[in-house]
Amino acid sequence: DEVKDSETVAALYEEGTQAYLEERFPVCVEKLEQALEKYRWQRRNTQNCRLKCKQESEASDTLFPVDIENLRFFEKNIKNTLCLINCKIDSNGNNDNVDDEIQKLFEERKPYEYLHLCYFKVNDVQKAASAAFTYLVLNPDHKVMAKTLKQYSELPGVDLKDVINFEAKDFVYLYVYGSDAYEKKDWDNAINNMEESLASYLHEEEECRAQCEGPFDAGWYPDFVPAIANHFTYVLKCKQGCKKKLGSLNGEIHADLLASHYNYLQYAYFKKRNLYAACQAVASYLLFLPDDESMLANMEYYQKLPKVQDSFFTPREEVIRYVQRDTYEERILRYIKNEFKFSKTSAQIAEAKQGRRNFRFTKNATDLGGGKRFASDGLISRNECQKLVYIANNFMNINDGYKGSSGGEKSASPHTKNEKFEGIDLRRISFLVYIGLLKPAYLRLLLEITEEMRVKLVHKFNIEESLYFSYTHLVCRSALAGSSQNRTDLSHKIHADNCNVLGDNICAKKYPAFHWRDYSAILYLNDDFEGGHFIFSADSKGRKIQSSIMPKCGRMVGFSSGSENLHGVTGVTKGRRCALAVWFTLDPTYQELDRDVSQHMLDNDITFHQYYSQDINTE
Ligand SMILES: O=C(O)CCC(=O)C(=O)O
Ligand SMILES: [Fe+2]
To answer: What predicted TM-score, i.e. pTM, was given to this entire model?
Structure first.
């Protein structure tokens, strides 16, 4: 309960990994243990709510006696939803949900990648070994970790027998006890443990399946029916993955773990002279694996026993339900796989023609009161905005790209002192991926989105030469705590992107201006702030505003970078405004070189981590 009331999982994880980086190992242990505990607690809450609400809505009295057009299905979903909302309020209080990203990290056992070393550094070698083992159970091909575990296990003070999987489910131990008892011909204990393991396994699988019923980004096709079908499919694939997830007994893969329970049980029951239970177990097993020869032979043997009746060979209730559901689900997935095939070329042609589905130009030059400029909506989805904001949230630098930040010849900041300006560029994002702090998928997404931005500019302005990327900058501006909400200063004063405005009609295209920039594009990521409008102005003082654009997720402005497009940003008076700014050039010598490097890194799966494991490998 102490953990329950304090920080979020994300914050605890962040503190733990930060402590790891700063070599404060006791804090690393404390925070990561808390993060894991809290994650488990929240996960369980979510699962419990989903299981309970499903049961409740199934059991509730229906509003109408006949089911017409699947209305019953929707009625249940509505009741289920109401229950979920209440359940969440009851169990979480005002606690946030664990976000997608954190969930992924924890499901992949990422915390243990840090935790084992922190345990080791505080001399808890047994736990260090167990943490490494826990990680390996889910990531069996991780060579470095395998080597680390081997080193730990050779240390004095580490007892191999006591190396445990911290994330093991109950049934794993019950199953192991059960099969041990079986080997020792201790039939009572074999039966008890196997029955318990079975119940625990089935419950665990239900929890795993409940965990799958999370959110989904309907993205490019949010019509009612397809949205339901797509979300369902997404969830179903995840649910089908549960068998595989649970089939690993501390890293050993058992394809037919569930069925094998019935194999142990049939023989143990036979030995206890409970022929009915033995025959039921045989029939249950055969429902999973109907062609299993040795089980068919067992059946033949039992059939010949005088006391056995044909009716004994009925599969157990839980198995019938399980196998039917499983078979139906597999058929649905197979159907989807076989039928949802569209020839690549037509899909590619459609994509090349349309680009992103919901993209639409909303304002052209006339609407915006000037030259080469446009605004558009729907370039990226909410989910994609959130992914970029995730990078921003976790890795931005203050004043990035301007004087006051690290290194280089940089221009003085054009930003107001009443706001915090933070940013991160492509180079640093690539670096984070390289060192394994950020998933490659983020970089891939960033490259893809910025390429879309480039293509939109090329199309809109009919640019016939090659248009190169010059600089990619993810930036956020936020009001400083002490600043007035009534301020009228600009967040970003009126300027041109490729020249220094020296007075009306004079704009010097030389240092310190980024004179090589030819086109600018800004893609907005959020709207939960106040102020922060993008404005085009006819004059450099911002007296003759031509148009104003309110940022929101997926909205983009594009314009040529010269003095024909003087622009600025009004003060952000509340909250934080994030945007992806990209500048382009026609001069290849000013290309953003990091772009090719990052693409190469992604294409070839090169990261520091990988190099490291390759080195170890070739020793
Ligand atoms: O964030 C915006 O809307 C514009 C920023 C801008 O003009 C710039 O960084 O040059
Ligand atoms: Fe600008």
So the answer is: 0.57
